[in-house]
Amino acid sequence: MTVTFSPFIARVVAVTSGKGGVGKTNVVAGLATAFAKAGQKVVVLDANFGLANLDVLLGLSPKYTLEHVLKGEKIMEEVMLEAPVAGAMSISVIPTSSGVHELSHLDPALELRLTQSLQRVCEDADWLFIDTAAGIHDAVLKMLAAAQEVIIVSTPEPTSLLDAYAMLKLLHLREPDKPVHMVINNAQSLEEATEAADQLKAAAQHFLGKELEILGLVPSDRHLLQAVREQRSVVDLYPNSPAGTALHHMAESLAEGLRA
Ligand SMILES: Nc1ncnc2c1ncn2[C@@H]1O[C@H](COP(=O)(O)OP(=O)(O)OP(=O)(O)O)[C@@H](O)[C@H]1O
Ligand SMILES: [Mg+2]
């Protein structure tokens, strides 16, 4: 038994990275907000079992989390919270608990419970975004395998790019046909972002024979920092800011892409 979310009606997109702290959770929150504003139903799953904080970023304080569902103490509907978005549909958030070791090693029984619960709550959703931990760990790889598409986030820093490439390579070796989208975040300039994206594209083409799709370039933006402090997505709070605009465009590009 492995987790698979492929019979879902929703598009299931996992967001990951090689290196930590590169902006995954902000990308998830931004894309989710952009789609909510477009009138779509979005569910987000915090699968960063080590450092869960998607709930905090969306201004929520969960009492119960995925841990309670997997332990059989609550059902998914009881732990799911609604994150409001100004003038739009709310985002359904499935929070998780930080540092819960059982969650980092999903056994087949837990996987089945997770899959069935998710299928139920995503029945009428357009999107399910999964915010994962950084790095190559079993629990992360399971989430990536379960999703239909993967977004890898990297900053333009060489260390982050190298780790993003390592993740891309591993994914490619395991599932060469899975659509992978690349996001360069927190770039100081468009030039820096484009250069980083070109480097990754060239490496993917040269070493893996893979055409890498660059989904978006998000600039470093103080509005995003302010939005994090206010526990709202930058797309909600400052939609016309450089980062807000870039994330909005990214959502449009993702929506235009073919379904996996
Ligand atoms: N575009 C940006 N402009 C300015 N700061 C940014 C930007 N993107 C991310 N940051 C900074 O990086 C921090 C980390 O972002 P985030 O929590 O989204 O990363 P992450 O990849 O989810 O981290 P983790 O690996 O711990 O889950 C943010 O709180 C913010 O301070
Ligand atoms: Mg995160």
Question: What does this entry look like structurally?
Answer:
With 260 residues, the chain is α/β, with parallel strands linked by helices. Helix content is 45%, strand content 21%. The protein is built from 12 helices and 8 strands. The model has no long low-confidence stretch (mean pLDDT 92).
Q: What does this entry show, briefly?
A:
The protein is of the alpha/beta class and 260 residues long.
The count of strands amounts to 8
Kindly state the mean pLDDT as a whole number?
92
CATH topology: Rossmann fold
The biggest sheet, with number of strands, parallel, antiparallel or mixed sense and barrel status, is: 8 strands, mixed
Helix content: 40-55%
Strand content: 15-25%
As laid out across the biggest beta sheet, the strand order is 3-4-2-5-1-6-7-8
* Ligand kinds: adenosine-5'-triphosphate, magnesium ion
| Radius of gyration of CA atoms, rounded to a whole number | 17 Å
Order of helices and strands: EHEHHHEEHHEHEHEHEHHH
Structural class: alpha/beta
CATH class: Alpha Beta
- Overall number of domains: 1
Please report the number of helical segments.
12
> CA-to-CA gap between the ends?
22 Å
CATH-defined superfamily: P-loop containing nucleotide triphosphate hydrolases
Shape: globular
Which spans of ≥5 residues are poorly predicted at pLDDT below 50?
none
In the CATH hierarchy, the architecture is 3-Layer(aba) Sandwich
